[in-house]
Structures are given as C-alpha cells and as structure tokens.
Write a structure and sequence with these properties.
The chain is an alpha+beta fold. Helices cover 35% and strands 17% of the residues. Strands 6, 7, 8, 9, 10, 11 and 12 form a 7-stranded mixed beta sheet that branches. The protein has a 4-stranded parallel beta sheet with strand order 2-1-18-19, covered by helices on one side. The chain has a 4-stranded antiparallel beta sheet with strand order 4-3-5-13. Helix 17 (590-597) crosses helix 18 (599-608) and helix 20 runs parallel beside helix 22 (691-701). The structure holds ligand ANZ and zinc ion. Residues 158, 160-161, 175, 177-178, 180 line the site of zinc ion.
Length: 800
C-alpha cells in the first residue's frame, strides 16, 4: 500500500467526524480521562509548529486511553480576547470580533487538518457573551467575598500598550505583550486579592503530580517568607518606622536603616528633612529605573542620607542614620529595612560606599572583604551571645521583641495582588457601577452578560482610559440599588480572565443557567493530564489554580485543585537553532509540512525530534526520515504473511508493545517511536509479517499516525475504526531475551563476541569464550591469572 496522504487524510478526518467517536460522554460508566492542552489564542498568523508539539502529547495519550477503554474528553476552544486583535482593529478599522472569528475559523481548519481527536462539540471562544457572562459571574462572586478591591498605588504600566500590567505580566521588567520596558506609574486600579490564597496555592502543590521544576517555580513566585515586623522609634518625633526582617537575630548589628524612596513617611515629615530637595531629585532618578534594575544585585549602590531624620535601634538604644535607597522596594514588606551590613551583602556594599559602621554579630567569614551570611556563634549581642544556631537565636529574639512590645512574628509573600484591569476594548467588561450615593455597586446577576458595546474607534485614550469611556450609552446607567444616575466601570478584564476557568466550561459548554452543571463538573474534574508551556507556570497556572480554589471554597466545584497532573513541552527552535521568529525568517509553517509530507508525518516528527521537554531545532531531514518510516510502514502489506510459519518476531513484538505502552506514559515519545522503527527493521530482515503482528503494529502506531493506521486497519480487515480498537497487551515472559550477545576480553580489551543462552552457566560460558579463535590466539603461551564472567555482559580472561 502507498501512503497517499493527500487522499487518505481528509477521508479519515471526515469518517471520524461522522462516526462521533471522539465525543466525550457525560456520566459514562467507563473510567473517565480528561486530557487538556492550553487552548490557543487565535492569532492572525495561524498555527505555529509549537502548537502542534504542545497538543500532540495529550493527543497521543488521549487516543491511547480511548483504545484502553476510557471515556475520554479531549476538548479544544479559543482564548479569544486580547490585544493583537485589538491592535489590528486600530490599524485596519475592522472590528476585533470579525477578525477573531476569521482567525478562529482558520485555526479550526488547521487543527482538523492535523487530525487531532478533539471533541469539537465542546468548542467555545472566551470572547462570546454566553461564555464571558460566566467570567463576569465568577468575578462578581469574588467581589461578594471581598476578593476584589481598588487601590491607588504604583502599578506596572506599559507605555507602548497603554495598559496596566500585573506582576505576572511584567516579569523581568518587560511587558508580556510587546516586550518593551515597563514603568512604574501611580494609578487607581482593580485588584484581585490572590495573596489571600497564597498559602492555599502552596499547600495545593502537595497533592498534585507536577514536575519538580514546575512546583519550584510556583513556590518561588509565591515566595513565602517568614520573619518579623519590628518598630524603630524615630528620634524626637512621635512616630515609628516599621520594618520587615527575616533575620531579627541580627538586631544588635543594625547600624542604619533604609527606606524605599517612595515611602510615605518621607512626605509626611518633609519639613523635618533638611535635604528634601535632594530627596526629590533622587526620586526622579529612581522613577526612571525598572523594578528589575533596582533589585538586581549591583555592587554600586545609590542612595541618600536623610538629614535631621534618624532612628533609635530599639535594642541598643543607639541613634542610627536613615537613608533612602532604591534597593529597597516599596512593594515588599513595609518598604523599609533595618540594615545589617556585616551579614547582608546589599547592606554591606551600601555601608562601604556611605561610610557607615559595620558591626559583626555572628562569628565567621572575613568582614574586611564581604558580608558573612553563614551560621556561627553570636557575638556583640548581649543575651544572644553564645547562641550558635540561627533558628534558636531568632526564636529567642522574637520572644524578647514580643515581651517588650517592639515587634512580632510575620509572614510576607513575593507574589502581589493581581492587578485586574486593562484600559482596552477587547476584553470582558468589568460588571461594576459607580454610584454617587452608593459607591461601587455590582451589576445584578440577572443582567449578565454585561455586553461589550459596539465601537467604531478602538484607540485607547491618551489619558489612560479605556475606549469604552468614550461611549456615553455604555457609561451612563442607573444605580441598581438606588436608581440614581450612575456610571459604569469602563476598564476591561485582563487577558488571563477567560482562561482562569475554561477547563470547567468544557465539562458543560452550552449551559445557560450555570457556568457548568455541578454534577458534570463532579464527573469530569479534575483534569487528569494538562500539558502546556513553562512560560505559563507563573501566570495562567497560578491564576487558574486560584480561581478554581476559590470556587471550591464557595462549594461550586468538587476538587481543591483543577489539574491532577501537569507536563510541559520544550520549544521548537528554528533550523538554525535560534528561537523561531518572523524577523529571523526561520519560522516553519506546520501547514507546509502537512501539504508536503502529510499530517501523520508532522505529528510523528514533532514527537520524534528529541526529548519532549527539551528545546530542539527543527530538521527537514528529520521530517523526511519520519515520512520514509511511514512509507515503509505502508508497504508492509507487500510482505504480509510471506513466510506463514515464521515466528522469529515474537519477542521483538512483545518488547515493542511494552516499550511503546510505557514510554507514552512517561512522555518519552521519541524512544517509543524509535522502538517502532527498530521493529520495522527487524520485520524487513525477516522479510515477512503475520496479520496478527501487523494488527499489533498498526494499533501501536495509531495514536501517532492515525490516518495511515486507519487505512492499514481496513486493509487487514480490522473491525471498525482503529482509533477505538483495543490497545495491544504484552506478555512479560515473551519480552525477556532467551539469548544474549556478550563480549569476550583479554585483560579488559575486547577480542571477540558471542551469543549465549541468557541463563547459561558461568563455567560453560568461560569455556566457550576460551575456544573463540581470537581468544585462543591471545591466550596461547601465557598464564591465566583470573577468569571473570559478568552475567549477560562479558567474559574477561586476565593473562600474564
Ligand atoms: C535584616 C537582615 C539581616 C536581612 C541579614 C537579611 C539578612 P526575603 O527572604 O526575600 O523575605 N528586605 C525587607 N523588605 C525589603 C524591601 N522592601 N526591599 C528590599 N529588601 C527588603 O528577604 C527579607 C529580607 O530582605 C529582610 O531581612 C530585609 O533584610 C530585606 F543578615 O533584614 B533583612
Ligand atoms: Zn506593552
């Protein structure tokens, strides 16, 4: 048979669609499997080979599960709100809804052409009002529970995109959307109180099967820190400066304090600060830096001593200077620190530059050269002198602070509350109303969805307002509580809102009365296996775990965690080994591969190209190799039952079943495919394959290259569709080799090889080895000192 992909691929795609075999059945008695991939943003560029790789893993696993008798849900939809469509609308004047629909159609066609086994009946797009109605509904539940608040603070702002960004959206000081530098800007924005869920997000990690590096990234992002809040009296003023420290044991070594330049106490006491003009200059300098630049461990610290404004070390009673410096951030702890130059490198660098004394309180290191951050005996520390264990010293100091009313135990998180609004058009309208009498009033549930109004001008305002602010008919409304003339909130939700609960909607995508029927949620959740990118670990993964846990706490969903298991794919690099990008001209279009080599080849190649989790360059030769393999596979029909009584393939066949079965579970797709290639070579040497053997081979390859496998299945008279044929079983006994090849050595040097019975006796093996021609020659005339047999590996004869 020939692998005539142009003809057979569309044919089988149509048959799958007509037969409905990929439809997930609610409440089926079969065991359920919910496989999930990160649904795409339907960009104008169409699919990327990265999408294909990301989806192919769960695709193969889902197909295997169906063959293993599971009721599988493998859904797809579109995460369709977002800036690119809006920016395109600004450029061309086409409505984002129109562009989005066009892109979704294009993506759908492409996904179908690759033959993914999605349950298309469950498809939806997050930008349609019957979906975002429920995004707004969940938002209102968060609001009801006090998890939505508004604050006027310094926010991450992208001057290019003209939007406020969350911390997750501005990692490394770069805008997630356009990669330009993010600036700090004072603005009143909506926040979701995700920090209230920090401990639950941490605790939840214990119960899920996520790769260690994924868990670690989340733990680091949440950044739980345990320490103490300590109050320092300001000299001559009835005011205390509160600091957060993880090292209260070093209090006797505090020789100065540092406040973030933006600290509000500075403004409160500007009349007491003699050099306030310098403060303002320094602040202007700092405003130019990104948070990333400020927190980097740079040796050359900048800062300014506040004149006429000092503090008292609460434990020594000594007066100490107060500085402002940009290495202290307003957004962490209290925005002020106690500086211990002897034991903190940042403080050390600062003290050296500004000539502040350094007092060592822990023995060790060389304080002349650098801060000593290790453990050791406490010195210069009064009641702590002689303590040698950090934990004990901290405990003792905490007791003391509490007793004297100076300070208290405290916890801090690196994660910040989630800045939850964008000043743009193409997003979910925030369902809140500003009433002059009642303040902020939520839109009543029965008025959802709050639909996006039609707009002609999508340009964001220079004033930092959303385009919605310009539409009077949207803005002006009456207060649902008191009936007064009121104004709607005009910001929209950030891109991540829709994807924070989409996996729940797949359980019941067409429900008008609830985000999903609780019974269906109970049946399908949790997601059994979720594959996606590492870049989402500290964004989407955190956000969606937060929303899901909130819904669990409110009794709306049945499991604490949404995803039982998570995995990730490595990037596909360009053929030149660089990240694929339009500007480098190294982008591979998956559709070109489908058209030239077939979808089965593409699917096989993205899983064969390397370790699934590793970044791997694209190779046209690799693609061709996969195509050749499928060609050879198709032509196995030529040697079907050529030598009917041949049984030499039995052990190889069982080994292959075992390998493919196990490797798919471990996401070692490349070695699973390699095992099938090895088997193919063995079949070629044997010159024959029986119908039963071919039936097994077809079923093993079917999840990877389903079109050709359906074709072959029909050819050999297989029952129904191979996509739901039973997965092959193996016999462990038959996977064990009866014979093995071992090497024969003289003094550790290989002289010859031989095949022996796997369970052969040591003496027999050695005797046989000594009879080999090359061994005989080497031994002749010498004395044998030692004879070694390493079972199933080697014989070594030591001679003199
Ligand atoms: C005194 C001290 C002595 C500190 C020492 C460290 C070592 P984590 O673990 O990340 O929570 N810090 C507190 N607030 C800060 C802010 N807003 N900006 C910059 N630095 C800040 O780190 C907590 C430590 O970071 C705190 O403990 C404080 O310095 C500093 F030998 O206090 B430490
Ligand atoms: Zn931007």
């Amino acid at each position: 048979m020939e692998y005539d992909f142009k003809q057979i691929e569309p044919k089988w795609q149509k048959k799958w669609q007509e037969s409905g075999i990929f439809k997930a059945e609610d409440f089926s008695k079969k065991p359920k499997f919910y496989g999930l991939v990160e649904f795409p943003y339907p960009s104008g560029a169409g699919m990327h080979v990265g999408h294909i790789k990301a989806y192919s893993s769960i695709e193969v696993i889902s197909r295997k599960r169906r063959m293993q008798g599971y009721n599988v849900m493998f859904p797809i939809g579109f995460d369709s709100f977002g800036l690119p469509a809006e920016n395109y609308a600004i450029k061309t004047g086409t409505h984002p809804a129109v562009i989005t629909q066009k892109n979704i159609d294009h993506f759908s066609d492409q996904l179908r052409a690759v033959g993914f086994s999605f349950d298309w009946d469950r498809e939806f797009a997050t930008s349609t009002s019957d979906y975002y109605k429920w995004t707004q509904w969940i938002f209102l539940k968060l609001y009801e529970k006090g998890l939505v608040f508004r604050a006027n603070t310094l926010v991450n702002y992208c001057p290019h995109c003209k939007v406020v960004l969350s911390n997750e959206d501005s990692q490394g000081g770069k805008c997630d959307i356009c990669h330009s530098d993010v600036i700090q800007k004072e603005k009143s924005v909506w926040y979701l109180r995700i920090t209230d869920y920090a401990d639950k997000l941490l605790e939840g990690l214990d119960s899920v099967d996520f790769p260690d590096n994924v868990k670690q990234q989340e733990v680091n992002w949440i950044g739980k820190s345990t320490g103490a809040f300590v109050n320092f009296q300001i000299k001559d003023i009835d005011e205390k400066l509160e600091i957060y420290t993880t090292r209260c044991d070093t209090l006797f070594g505090v020789t100065f304090m540092v406040m973030a330049p933006e600290h509000p106490l500075i403004d409160k006491y500007k009349n007491r600060i003699a050099n306030f003009a310098d403060v303002e200059n320094y602040r202007a300098e700092c405003a130019k830096k990104t948070e990333f630049e400020r927190t980097q461990l740079v040796k050359d610290k900048t800062g300014l001593k506040l004149d006429g404004f000092s503090a008292i070390n609460p434990i020594t009673g000594k007066e100490i200077p107060i500085f402002i410096a940009d290495y202290v951030m307003m957004g962490y702890g209290t925005g002020a620190i106690m500086a211990v130059p002897a034991h903190d490198q940042r403080d050390y660098d600062f003290a050296k530059k500004f000539g502040v004394p350094i007092v060592q309180v822990i023995k060790g290191g060389d304080i002349e050269k650098e801060a000593y951050t290790g453990d050791g005996e406490m010195i210069n520390s009064d009641f702590l002198n002689g303590f040698t264990n950090k934990k004990d010293s901290i405990e003792r100091m905490l007791e003391f602070l509490k007793e004297k009313g100076i300070g208290e135990r405290g916890v801090q998180y690196k994660m910040k509350d989630w800045a939850f609004n964008r000043q743009r058009y193409w997003g979910e309208p925030i369902p809140l109303i500003h009433c002059p009498n009642c303040g902020v009033v939520p839109v009543p549930e029965d008025q959802l969805p709050l639909e996006l109004p039609d707009v002609k001008n999508f340009e964001p305002g220079e004033d930092g307002n959303s385009p919605l602010a310009k539409i009077d008919s949207f803005v002006n409304c009456t207060c649902p509580k008191c009936g007064a003339a009121a104004k709607r909130e005009t910001d929209t939700m950030p891109q991540w809102a829709g994807s924070s609960w989409y996996f729940l909607r797949f359980c019941d995508p067409h429900n008008d009365n609830a985000f999903a029927d609780p019974e269906k949620v109970k049946y399908w959740m949790p997601v059994d296996w979720y594959n996606g990118g590492m870049e989402h670990v500290t964004r989407h993964l955190i956000y969606s775990r937060f929303w899901h846990r909130f819904l669990y706490d409110q009794g709306y969903v049945s499991t604490k965690e949404p995803y039982a298991k998570r995995s990730y794919q490595g990037l596909i690099l360009g053929p030149d080994g660089e990240k694929m990008s339009k500007s480098k001209g190294n982008v591979v279009d998956p559709m070109d591969i489908v058209n030239q080599y077939g979808a089965d080849t593409l699917r096989l190649y993205v899983l064969f190209m390397g370790d699934y989790g590793a970044a791997t360059p694209w190779s046209e030769n690799g693609v061709k190799g996969c195509k050749r393999f499928i060609d050879r596979f198709a032509s196995l029909t030529d040697i079907l039952d050529k030598k009917p009584e041949d049984t030499s393939l039995e052990s190889s066949l069982h080994k292959m079943i075992k390998k493919v079965t196990e490797d798919i579970e471990a996401m070692k797709f490349n070695t699973a495919i390699a095992a099938m290639m090895t088997f193919m070579n063995e079949v070629s040497s044997a010159g024959t394959i029986s119908k039963e053997e071919l039936s097994v081979f077809i079923r093993l390859l079917a999840p990877f290259a389903p079109h050709i496998c359906e074709e072959m299945w029909t050819y050999i008279g297989g029952e129904g569709l191979v996509s739901i044929a039973p997965w092959p079983e193996y016999d462990e006994q038959k996977t064990i080799d009866k014979t093995v090849e071992i090497v024969a050595q003289i003094n550790g040097k290989v002289k010859s090889k031989m095949v022996i019975e796997a369970d052969a006796d040591k003496d027999d093996v050695i005797a046989k080895a000594k009879e080999l021609d090359k061994m005989k020659d080497a031994i002749e005339g010498k004395t044998i000192v030692k004879e070694i047999y390493v079972p199933k590996k080697l014989v070594n004869i030591v001679v003199k």
